[in-house]
Amino acid sequence: MTFFSKNITFKRGCLSTALTAALLVSGCSSIGKGITEALLEKTESEDTRLCQIWGSPFPGIESSLKKSKGKTKVLMVHGVGDHVPGYTTQFLEKLAKQLNLNVRSDIDKNIALNAPLFPGKDIGNLRVTRLLNEESGKELIFYELTWSVISRPEKELLAYDTSGDYDFRRARLNSMMKKFSNDVGPDPIIYLGQSREPIQAAFVQSFCWMATRDWEGLPESGKHACENLNDSSIEHIANDDYAIISHSLGSRIAIDGMQRIAYMLANQEKYAKATHKKAIATQKSIEALQSKHILMVMLSNQLPMLQLGRELPDITGQYANYCDPKGDHYSKRMVSETSILAFTDPNDLLSYGIPPGFAEKFLDSRLCSRITNVNINVAKVMDAFGISDLANPMEAHVGYDHDDRVVALIANGVGNEKTLPLVKQRCEFTKTVK
Predict the structure, then answer these.
(1) pTM, whole model, 2 decimals?
(2) pLDDT, tens only, 159-176
(3) What gap in Å lies between CA 117 and CA 203, rounded to an integer?
(4) Distance between CA 352 and CA 179 in Å, rounded?
(5) Each residue's pLDDT tens digit, 169-198
(6) Domain layout of the chain by residue ranges
(7) What is the CA radius of gyration of the chain?
(8) What DSSP string describes 173-222?
C-alpha cells in the first residue's frame, strides 16, 4: 500500500461499498451477515492464487549480499500518486526480514537531488538506508527515489476542483473518488510533457549516486549533484551489484532512465557542452559498467501501455550486434545484461505482461534486455452467493510490495538452488530459451 500513500482508507472502503451495492442488487441484503461470513471463509481458505513465471532463471539479490568485494545496492522508483520520503518502509521491512538483515543505520541519508542540466531545480529526494547482519556480514544499501516534487506543482491546477469552494457539491463517496483521481490520474500526462526530462534526470542522478559511492561516501543531507563516472568510481562499478525495483509508471521512468544513460554515454560531447563540464564518464568507468548485470523488477508493469504513441529509442532491433560477444557493436553496449522481471496481476486493470519481441522492438539494444514475466494474483479472488470471480482491482494494483511470494522472488529468485520453498510450492516456473 505504500505506493499510493494517501487515502488508503478510501480505497478499501470503496471496494466494501461497491460490494455492498452488488449484494443489494442481487437480492441478498436480508442475509448480509451470512454473506460476509461466507466471503471471509472463502478468502481465508487455502490460498490457491495464481503464480506463473516464464523466462530465464535469476538469482535474486540474496546471493550477492555477502561479498568479499563490493556492495549490493537496490534503487526503488515509485509510480503515480503523491509520495513522500519513506513510502517504501513496509516493503523494506519485509525484504529485510526475508534476507535476515536485522540491523539498520540509525539515520537515513536524504539527498536533495540536483542535476547539471537543470541547475537550481528541485528534482526529488534520494533516501538511503543501510541494512546488515553483523554475524553473517550481509549488507544491503537501499536507495529510495521520490520524484513527486516535480509533478506536485502541476497538479495545483486541479486544486479548485477539490477545494471548499466546489467540493461540497459532490456526494461524499464521489468526493473521495475525485480526490483520488486528481492525485493519480495526472501523473502519466505530466510525464509525457515538459516534466519528463527532469523526472528522468532524477533517476539518472539516483543511479549515479548508487554507482559512485558507498554508504560512508554519501552526504547525510543537503542539495547535491552527482556529476560523472570517473576513474575513482571504477572499483564500485566493477564490484557492486545493482537491482532496480519500480511500480507502475515508475517502470517506464526506470527504463527511460536507463535508456537516457545509454544515450548520454554515447553522446558525451553533447552533454558536456550543455553542462559546461568535462566528459560525464571516463573510458575505464564505461568499460566497468559494460560488465554489469542489472536486475530490474517492475511491479504492476505498464511498459506496453506506456509505449503507445511514443518514439522509439535511437537503437533498437540489434540485440545480437550489441549483446553477443561476436557482434559488431559489442564494445558499445551499456551493460552486459538487463534482466527485466515484469510482475502483473491479471485482475490489475493497469498492468500488462510483456509480449514476445517487445524488448527487441521497443527497448534500446544497448541495454541487452532479457524479460521474465510473472503472472501472479496478489489480490484474492472471491466466489460466493452468486458473485463469482470477484477481485479487488485496487489491491491487484498496489498489493505487490507486501505479497510474500513477490518478496521471496526478489530476495532469492527462481530456477536456482537458493529458490525459497514458498516459491517452489506456490509458483510454476517455465524456463524459456532463445
Answers:
(1) 0.85
(2) 787 777 877 887 887 778
(3) 13
(4) 26
(5) 878 877 787 777 878 888 999 998 999 999
(6) 8-151+196-431
(7) 23
(8) HHHHHHHHHHHHTHHHHHHHTTTHHHHHHHHHHHHHHHHH--GGGS-SSS
